[in-house]
Amino acid sequence: MTDTPDENAPDEKRGPSDPAGPDDAELLGHDRDVAEPGLVVEPDDEIDLDDKPASAAEGAVAQDEIGDTTADDEPEADPDTEVVGTGPSDDEMAAADMDDSPEPDEVTAAPLDDEPAAADAGDDSTDLSPAEPDDGHRSRRGRRVVLGLAVLVGALYVGGYFLTGTRMPANATIGGVDVGGVSPSAARAAVDKALTPNEDRPVILEQGKKEFTISPKKVGLALDVDRSVSEAGGQRSWNPVDMIGLFVGDHSTDPALDVDEAKLQSAIGTIGEAVNREVVEAQITFPKAKPTARQPRPGLVIARADTEEAIRQAYLVDEAPIKVPTAVVEPAVDASELAEAMKTIAEPAVSGPVTIRSGDKKVALPVTAYAPALVVRVMDNQLRPNLDPKKLAKPLTDSTTGIGKKAVDATVRIDNGKPVVVPGKSGIGLQPEEMATKLIPALTKTGSERAVEIEAKVVDPEFTTKDAKALKITEKISSFETTFPYAEYRNTNQGRAAALLDGTIVKPGETFSFNDTVGERTPANGFVTGTVINGGVFREELGGGVSQVVTTTYNATFFGGMEDVEHHPHAFYINRYPVGREATVYFGSLDLRFKNPTKYGVLIRSYVVKSTPSSMGVMHVELWSTKVWDIKAGKSARRNARTPGKQYDDTDRCVPQGPIPGFDIDIYRTFYRAGQRVKTETDTARYQAADHVICGKKPAAD
């Protein structure tokens, strides 16, 4: 066991030329009670300190300069510097071997960091444990690891970027052409070879028995090879997914296409005219004062976006016809709700007369008086009764002659080729608007509750003499006529529509509606069955031939300078009408509407010269007002020719039909005032091709 020197022992080992006091150890930067690590001082040995530094700061001498004899002059370890021991010297090893018989005055330093401490130093010994690595050391090591990983990931990322664009992704196809793993240039060559020969191949669509052809050149469809390869992964990318995709996964893309969007949408619109079917809403009318239900039927419309996508996907890669994407338009009210409305609204409404009390007078309003004005229709997604005050006015007055006196409206009529104002007259009676409002709740009641209390009042004409004069209807501003072949249904239906239209006055800023003015084409309204166009083919329906009146009216308003609000050309062109300047209607869906943009009233005069087996009929429409514009019409050449197809129809509704080519055409309307051109309007008519319709079953060989 090595004893620690007593600090009070005599300094008998000091040299005569190196006197030292008790603080010498402190001058060397050590604790007096602890020997320098690794230094062994034997009795009677002399230590020459002349060559040692005078202070701890000056005593920082390199280990190789001190040699193996002492470790006294090692500098203090920097707290931020890791110290690694050099191991014991031969002398130190010899000193250690002498531990079994220690000298009393022997001093042994504590073991270095890499030497194990004595197992038992005794009570008088001082144990020096190795210093533990501090937190700063571990933090620096962690930062170095993170930095190394970041450098590695960055190198891989940059390498991946440069790898993309040099080869196509694994298992890649473009429009079914295999380009997986090849270079972009090889991919371009493969796509060009496989798909470019198909650029002029048309896309065929079908809907039921109808077939439609899309010509790539006419809609601007073309293959873009370079963009196809780039979009399929043939370009550099910083996206890690694209880098991984070079080696794994399946990558299928469509060819990149150029397209004239306007022309493609025009072609799709033409298909839609043949495919679309208007939704039919439930409705109850009362012809001959009996409720008649119109069953709801879903409509069908072409899904434009889906159709365009289907055309794009089929182009170049698919020869088989594709089905036209459509969407079903459901009616707001179904058949069960219609049946319920028949029981709870329609049947009670015409179950008997309604009692009208006015003062001390009481009259029974018969069902026949209000039934023509009554309709149960869809409003706010429900079937509700509605009374038209205008249609109610006359029968109400006729049926309540015992109450008051009928008012007479002023009017304007044409006498000897000149407009004449016919004065109106006031009366005493029931107000149609008030009567319609009060009558509706009573229609579903019974007994004494089926009554209306209303006061008779002075009834002014709806259209007074002053009103008529203020319109300044002074001259004929336009007229138009069309001819039609002999058919009794045309004479009847056109004559009836012309009579309902004649004498209509459109006030300044007012919008005219053909359907509102003429009403639904029903037997109760004076119409019979005739030929109409429905779904791109001729069908037999009520009101056939009325489109002749509509077309003639449209042209009169065209040249009269009226503002076109709504008009619909026929699905295909009928050559007895002006090309591009014709219109059709269908009650509840298609209407003819125009607005009077002038400060003058407009009087419509219409009449028919009936057809005979030996002569054509003539439909006349005139507009009378104060002239504002001189109108000139023009048209473009026909374009986008469409070829008709062929279809067979074995239903009892079939009407044979010859093929009619389709096309587009622009119509120009130029406005002049005082000989100076003011503006020009352009309207485009698009006619679909009318199929050759053959009544009967399709032959097996066709």
Name the features.
single chain; 702 residues; alpha+beta; Ubiquitin-like (UB roll); 4 domains; four-stranded antiparallel beta sheet; 38 strands; 26% helix; elongated
Walk me through what this model shows.
There is one protein chain. The chain is an alpha+beta fold and 702 residues long. The chain folds into four domains: 1-132, no CATH class; 172-282 and 303-329, no CATH class; 332-464, Ubiquitin-like (UB roll) (Roll), CATH 3.10.20; 471-695, no CATH class. The chain has 18 helices and 38 strands. The protein has a four-stranded antiparallel β-sheet. Strands 24-32-31-25 form a four-stranded antiparallel β-sheet. The longest helix has 29 residues, at 135-163.
Q: Can you summarize this structure?
A:
This protein has 702 residues and is of the alpha+beta class.
Total beta-strand segments: 38
**Average pLDDT figure:** 81
The helix content, as a percent range, equals 25-40%
Helical stretch tally: 18
Blueprint (SSEs and pairs):
Blueprint: H1 24-27, E1 40-41, H2 63-66, H3 90-97, E2 107-108, H4 135-163, E3 172-174, E4 177-178, H5 184-195, E5 203-207, E6 210-214, H6 216-219, E7 222-223, H7 225-231, H8 240-245, E8 251-253, E9 257-258, H9 261-275, E10 283-285, E11 292-294, E12 299-302, H10 304-314, E13 322-323, E14 326-329, H11 335-349, E15 354-358, E16 361-365, H12 367-370, E17 374-379, E18 382-387, H13 389-399, E19 411-415, E20 418-422, E21 427-429, H14 432-442, E22 451-453, E23 457-459, H15 465-470, E24 475-484, H16 488-501, E25 505-506, E26 511-513, H17 514-518, E27 529-534, E28 537-542, H18 546-559, E29 563-566, E30 593-595, E31 602-609, E32 617-625, E33 630-635, E34 639-642, E35 646-649, E36 662-673, E37 676-687, E38 692-695
Parallel strand pairs: 3-8, 5-13, 15-22, 35-38
Antiparallel strand pairs: 1-2, 3-4, 5-6, 7-9, 10-11, 10-17, 12-14, 15-16, 17-18, 19-20, 21-23, 24-32, 25-31, 26-30, 27-28, 29-30, 31-32, 33-36, 34-36, 36-37
